[in-house]
Write a structure and sequence with these properties.
Strands 1, 3, 5, 6, 8 and 10 form a six-stranded mixed β-sheet that branches. A five-stranded antiparallel β-sheet has the order 2-11-4-9-7, with no helix packed on it. The protein is built from four helices and eleven strands, in the order αβββββββββββααα. The protein is an alpha+beta fold and 282 residues long.
Length: 282
C-alpha cells in the first residue's frame, strides 16, 4: 500500500512538473517574437558609403548589408544600435586591390567601440587577418559579449546604445597606400534572453549627444524631442521598452517544482497513522 502511494505521488509530481515545462516552451516563441528581429533591406536603402571618423560614422541597422568603396589605408566607420540581451556579431568582407598592383601582403582589422567610445573585446571571431599577395578578398568577424542592461561605472561591459565599427588595414607599405578597395559589412544579433538579464537598467541608452540633449531640456524646461534631432549624432535608437523576460517563466517553474517537492517529501515521511491492528484505546 505504501509503495503504491509513493508511485502515485511520483506520477502526480511528474505530470505537474511537465505542465510548467510545456508552458515555458510555449512562452519562448512569444518572448522571441516580442523583440525586434533584423532583416536585410530589400528596398535599396542600405548604405553605400562609410564615414571617416566617429563623428561621421555611417548609420546602419542590424540586418542591413552596407557597402563602401575607399582607398587602402583609409579608416572606415559605421554605427549601429544594440539593446540589452543581444549579442551582436559584426562580419566584414574586404575585396582587395588587384594582385598585380599590390607589393606585399595586407593585414586588415575590425574594431568595435561602444557609445562611450570604449573599445569592446571580441568574444570570438577573426578580428584581424592577413591577406597574401595572391588573395582577392579577406573576411573578418567579431562577436561581442552580450549587451547588459546595467553595469558598474568602473566596468567595461557592453551597454545598450550606439556601437561604432572601424575597419582599416595595418602595416601597409608605401606602394600599397591609395589602391582602390571595397568592403561589405553586416551586423546581426542573437537574442540571449533572460540568462543574461541583470537587476537594473540604464536611465537612457549610450547614444552620442544624449548628455547634451538632457542638459538642453533641463535648462529650457521643454521636451527633448526637438533637441535630439540637432544634438544627437545618431538617429538610431535601441528598443528599451521591453519588460518581459524568460526569467519570469523559469522562476515560476522553480517555485512550482519546489512546492511539489515539499508535498512529495511530506507524503514520504508522515507515515500511515495508527496501525489497524492496534485498538483505539490502547
Amino acid at each position: 500500500m505504501r509503495i503504491r502511494r509513493v508511485l502515485s505521488t511520483t506520477a502526480l509530481l511528474a505530470g505537474l512538473a511537465g505542465a510548467p515545462a510545456l508552458l515555458g516552451a510555449a512562452a519562448f516563441p512569444a518572448i522571441a517574437d516580442s523583440s525586434p528581429s533584423a532583416s536585410p533591406s530589400d528596398d535599396g536603402s542600405a548604405p553605400t558609403e562609410a564615414g571617416t571618423s566617429f563623428r561621421t560614422a555611417t548609420e546602419i541597422e542590424q540586418g542591413e548589408q552596407a557597402t563602401a568603396g575607399a582607398s587602402t589605408g583609409d579608416y572606415l566607420y559605421w554605427q549601429f544600435p544594440a539593446d540589452s540581451g543581444q549579442q551582436p556579431t559584426v562580419k566584414a568582407t574586404v575585396k582587395l586591390p588587384e594582385a598585380s598592383k599590390r607589393a606585399s601582403s595586407e593585414t586588415w582589422q575590425i574594431d568595435v567601440y561602444d557609445g562611450l567610445r570604449r573599445r569592446q573585446a571580441c568574444q570570438y571571431g577573426a578580428q584581424t587577418r592577413t591577406a597574401g599577395t595572391d588573395a582577392s578578398s579577406v573576411e573578418l568577424s567579431c562577436t561581442l559579449r552580450t549587451v547588459r542592461a546595467w553595469s558598474e561605472t568602473w566596468a567595461n561591459d557592453p551597454l545598450p546604445g550606439t556601437y561604432y565599427i572601424r575597419l582599416t588595414a595595418t602595416g601597409l607599405g608605401t606602394a600599397d597606400l591609395g589602391l582602390p578597395m571595397s568592403a561589405q559589412l553586416q551586423v546581426d544579433s542573437e537574442d540571449i534572453g533572460g540568462s543574461a538579464a541583470v537587476d537594473g537598467s540604464l536611465a537612457k541608452p549610450l547614444v552620442p549627444g544624449i548628455a547634451v540633449t538632457s542638459a538642453n531640456s533641463e535648462e529650457d524646461g521643454s521636451d527633448d524631442s526637438s533637441d535630439s534631432k540637432t544634438a544627437t549624432l545618431s538617429s538610431l535608437r535601441p528598443d528599451t521598452s521591453a519588460w518581459w523576460s524568460d526569467r519570469w517563466v523559469w522562476t515560476g517553474i522553480g517555485g512550482v517544482l519546489a512546492a511539489l517537492a515539499g508535498i512529495w517529501g511530506y507524503s514520504l515521511t508522515r507515515g500511515r497513522g495508527r496501525p489497524s491492528r492496534i485498538p483505539p484505546g490502547a
